[in-house]
Amino acid sequence: MRIIDVHCYPNTKEWIACQQPYVNALAQYWNRSWTAKSEDDVVQDFTNAGIEAILVALDLETTIATPPCSNDFVAGMRKRHSDRIIQAWAAVDPFKGERALTEAKHAIQDLKMLGFHFHPISGHFAVNERALYPLFELINELRVPVMIDVGTTGMGAGMPGGMGSKLRHAHPSAIDELAADFPNLTIIAAHPGWPWVDEMTAVVLHKGNVFWELSGWAPKYFSEQLKVDICGRLKEKIMFGSDYPSIPHARLLHEWKELGYADEVMERIFHRNAERVLGL
């Protein structure tokens, strides 16, 4: 069965450097260190797992003054390993104003990237803030999708003040409002959205342009209602993502299998929904 992983990070030194000091706090929170891998080793991880990856760029420069894991870098990695990395999400720092708009055009028009990923908690914004709407108006004009993190994060967790991050920035209501204001914009909610899983379910069901990938969470810990909805009223909406390197693919795939869904449901989750919604 084809497996498209819609949410993978490069896991190279460029990606780890981009997240400092969050990455040190995350290692402390999860009680395991982060070690950069070579580009070839990352691709080998994808090959061993049997997945086709969509990489995610990251730009937190305004928030934590680190160099971005840039669109050019991630698009280059895709180009060098196109047999295993089939696409890439671009990143723009929405606080960069005109520079963000220019970079957004470059990512889509020049680099031919898939769309844009937003990490509201680490970036210190909510996607429904009106100051950000010129960027979303441009993305809407470019006719590409966005993937937006929802729910809590390990970034800054357990640290005083959460290192300045605010969980409310990633509440499903922000995606709900964005989807209503931009009905032609395809939105992928990233992660299960805990502790607002039911609210996220409501948004996905209500907004025809909102879909959902459940990365960064071990499937055995999905809520019981979500497990029911995945093979029922959400079966056209759910996509597979890993949040690599957060959780090993072997564990994720094993736990998805243990949920006991029919092959027809797993076909939708692992590739058909992504193929249809993202044009893969």
CATH superfamily: Metal-dependent hydrolases
Tally of separate domains: 1
Cα gyration radius (Å):
17 Å
| Tertiary shape | globular
Q: Which structural class best describes the helix and strand composition?
A: alpha/beta
Classify the beta-strand content into a percent band.
5-15%
- Got a strand count? 8
**Major β-sheet profile:** 8 strands, parallel
> What helical percentage do the residues reach?
40-55%
Summarize model confidence as the mean pLDDT. 95
Low-confidence stretches: none
- CATH topology title: TIM Barrel
Q: Count every helix, treating DSSP H or I runs of 4 or more residues as helices.
A: 13
Based on the structure given, which CATH architecture is correct? Alpha-Beta Barrel
Question: What is the CATH C-level name?
Answer: Alpha Beta
Q: Name the strands of the widest sheet in spatial order.
A: 1-2-3-4-5-6-7-8
